[in-house]
Amino acid sequence: MSQIIISVGREFGSGGRVIAEKLAERFDLPLYDRHLITEIAEKMGMTVEQVEKYNEAPKMKIISRRVNGYSNSIEDNIAEMQFDIIDDKAKSGESFVVVGRCSETKLRKYPALVSLFILGDMDQKIKRVMEVYELSEEDAKKFITKKDKKRKRYHNYHCQGKWGDSRLYDLSVNSSRLGIDKTVDMLEDYIKARIEAMK
Amino acid sequence: MIVAQIFAVIIFVGMFIMIVLDKIERHYVTLGSGLLTLIVVFGICMRNGTAILNTLAVKDFFTRDFWYQVEESESSGINWATIVFIAGMMLMVEGMAKSGFFRWLCMKIAFLVKCKTVPIFITFTIMAAVLSMFIDSITVIMFLAAVTVELAQLLKFNPVPMILSEIFCANLGGSATMCGDPPNIIIGTSLGFSFFDFLLNTGLAAGISLIVSVIFLYFAFRKELVTEKGAEVDMSKFPKPSEAITNKKDFLISTIIFGCAVILLVTHSTTHLTVASIGLFIGIVTLIAAGKHALELLKKVDYKTLVFFIGLFMVVSGLEETEMLDKIAMFIEKICGGDVKLMIVIILWVSAIASAFVDNIPFAATMVPVIKNLAAASGTPISTLAWTLAIGTDIGGSATPIGASANVVGTSVAAKNGHPISWGRYCKKLAPATVIVLVISTVYLFVRYV
After folding, report:
1. CB-based contact B138 A63, cutoff 8 Å
2. Hey, are the CB atoms on B405 and A67 less than 8 Å from each other?
3. How many CB atoms sit inside 10 A of residue B217's CB?
4. Do B9 and B289 meet the contact criterion of CB atoms below 8 Å apart?
5. ipTM computed for the complex
6. In the predicted model, what is the mean pLDDT of residues B300-316?
């Protein structure tokens, strides 16, 4: 199989990460999500928890400054290290699935990229988050809003395009319509068609 | 006039906010704000074509004083001398970096002190200060921090204390000369001071402060400046300094050009060549020496910074032409009531605190016309206020990770190599060091100029 890179952007609670895991299984590809954090933590001599604090987090602008591409913000530096790691992997010809990390934009130059965005209906997302995180309906809603706001700020700071804007991705899918498994089936067919077209 | 003043202030404050928010690149922000100043403040509100021409200051290029200056003269509007000088120095530094000069120098010094941690700490911090007297601190720290990280990996010590000390001393060294830090270039060219004027005034303060700072930083970090137990220094594993040189001919030429730049700067009050002439000369010589690689060097010039300066000068002219800066000067004069000591304290400490949090270049550019008016109103020598402003803006920037460009570059190089530096880690030692240097500077200014 020639190189294939599957980038999965997602709304919080949409099941995007689970979909990415299932796609990785079906195509027998490594999945890069938290693994990138472990890799960076090892390199930086920090604990995974410490890196996690800054992962996919927007920097605080008032206490950050950028000079000629250099930034004092730890969030910025961790983000750039993640972009570099996925770029190196893509450059080496490796096939993989990557969740978030602005990968739909950062890896756009690679023809092997298939970029997906998973969204969901709010009621379905709340239901899912209530189950997974054992939260009340109100807390789940707040948690979703907070997480998505953070992802959006992170993405829009590091990329030109807007987070979740369908023009940025090859395919945007609402996972609430078919459910996780059928969405994965549909995406598998789409990716197979893309692989065929790449030949 | 009031409407023009209001718009000038709105544009200025808006520009500052946009720079801090970092949503749009800062050179677009200043250039856009500068054009707004020309159109709205001068064109629509004041209907004053002369103000536009004064701000653009294109005629400066055709005056003898711009290139060859026998008597001190002041300038206003876009400070083209600063732009030409910085552009020339950027070309020279690019040429030096390409030949491997900085890496060679760092490795050579490390070898000379036999790669021992404490001597490396002392020599690297002093080297940061000396190089920053002539070269922009961003370049100095970019190379020093990278070599420090490399040495730290080989010698098994924590590079963070050394990088922090290098940053601090680079900012300190920058305050010593007219070309060490952008605020000094702006102050020097706007008010007609020479390289030597700076060296004899801010340079002396920087020299005293450097000795105290190296001692302070050594004691502050001494527990961290040790290599891991059992780690033996095997010098044969180290990259040889000569390996850093990419091309011997280029290396020799760039070293000669750097030497010429230093001589021209040191002697420019005697030769009467302005910094604009020196910048242009150095730039042209570098391009000629680069031969077929000249275009490559030209492409590497940081045009964004040059555009940032041009826009900034236009916005400050808006405040100057609408006499808003006179009001600030009068306000300071009123508070001080002719007390020079109080004036020094206010300018030094306000400049330092402001520079610790906002870019010191716009701050200095704004303050130059203020101190000009303040000197005229209070009868205080302009030189006293100029040295105070230069020290305040240059030193204050060391207090926080965002206060100066060198801080951002140094902390970023450290983070990318696995040593993230938080605000707390940075400020714990460098904020007190900044306060110590500011106290020394206050005493120095009192003793020497009051």
Report:
1. no
2. yes
3. 24
4. no
5. 0.77
6. 91
